[in-house]
Design goal:
The protein is of the alpha/beta class and 121 residues long. Helices cover 27% and strands 30% of the residues. It is built from three helices and six strands. β5 (89-92), α3 (96-105) and β6 form a beta-alpha-beta unit.
């Protein structure tokens, strides 16, 4: 992935005692999430997703995510389900474990959600 897709030289927002880093992306518009997504860091993610909601489709790069609990999955699915006018939330580079959880829960079929393979990211 091209590291030049982050917003200028802006320092990433580090939240929840450095367990989760959320960096805004410009091309494509979205977020890069790194670290652990769990009950403690979930409010940071939901706030970042809400800030992008309503502006059309966007992507969330999950390549740096090392842990995600079901609350994190639900937040991503809820953001996708809230997409309107044919827009989508694209999850870029989900780990094989996250892909499997999306498949097992059936959430991979959520309207407005796209899972993008690592090979196409």
């Amino acid at each position: 992935m091209n590291t030049g897709d982050t917003v200028g030289a802006r320092t990433p927002d580090t939240l929840a005692d450095r367990l989760l880093r959320i960096t805004p992306l410009v091309d494509p518009v979205g977020l890069r999430i790194e670290g652990e997504l769990d009950h403690a860091t979930l409010p940071a993610l939901t706030g970042a997703l809400a800030a992008l909601a309503g502006g059309g489709g966007f992507c969330v790069d999950l390549s740096g995510l090392v842990f995600c609990d079901v609350g994190g999955l639900r937040a991503l699915v809820a953001a996708a389900a809230g997409m309107r006018d044919g827009h989508a939330l694209t999850l870029r580079s989900p780990s094989p474990q996250l892909r499997r959880l999306f498949q097992l829960t059936g959430w991979h079929q959520t309207a407005g959600l796209r899972l993008q393979d690592r090979s196409t990211s």
